[in-house]
Amino acid sequence: MRELIRGLRLWRALALPVWLLALALPGAAQTQQVTTPFAPVAVVNGDPVTGFDLEQRVRLLRLLADVPADSGALSQAALEQLIEDRLKIQAGSRAGIAPTEEALAAGIAQFAESRGMTAEALRSRLERAGVTELAFEDLIAAEVVWLELVRGRYGPGAEPDAGELDSQLGQIAQAAPGTAYRLQEIGLPAEPGAEADALAQAQALAAQLAQGADFTAAVRQYSQAPSAARDGEVGWVDADRLPPELAVVLATLEPGQVSGPIRVGPGYSIVRVLEVRQGAAPAAAAPEVREQVRRQMMEQRMGQAAQTLMQELRRDALVERR
Hints:
The chain is an alpha+beta fold. Helices cover 53% and strands 13% of the residues. The protein is globular, with a radius of gyration of 22 Å.
């Protein structure tokens, strides 16, 4: 289980969508007023989400995402996250999966590490914010169960075969030493706990750009990369200095073409190739590059499978909001 949590960087790929702000909570006129923090605000396949659960998750999201105290939007996001947590735990239970103490400890440690803290420092910060240990462990437990479920169900099929891997590496090799790209980028952050929704937003934006939307206008509206101050202009970048996941994509693009979302560091990038200077000889794929590309391919496939599975669970669920 520890290897599962730490492998493939799937913690970020499989994190659940937090910012589902298009959904609205029912108005007070349509529902009975909650008179106790332990009364349900939603019931998911018979499993209640209480007012106290919701209040705790709002505190947790406000702290971890460092967002202002917008109670309406944050409550909506927290409720949707709690509903998906219940669905993940229920799906795991049907598959005979339950979080062990060891798995929880490993998940908490990795979550803390992703934020540059120790588990003890994170717990202390949560306590000061009024978040109970149980509320935080509920979040981690859902992710631990979900990761094991998705890995067990889709892991074998996500592994690229030698031909698929060689094909990807061949695209990287086309970027010869001396090849350089002049790029324009849109940098989109993905906060911990909101990566899947950030990817969905990036995919929607990339689709608009592929249909002819103004790239520079999109930079000014959406990009949070440092290059946004220069309308997204990155300048010339040598191919052999690019991350493999970016080199794979750029090797397939012609000047003027726009990429789909590319996971780079803590967020996603959408790039447009402005010019290309070709090199002279193909670059050899080092073993570490091959392994990195293999992990990236698996991460992408498992992330897509996880999103599809959650959509199916939500479609079939009986969810009553109160």
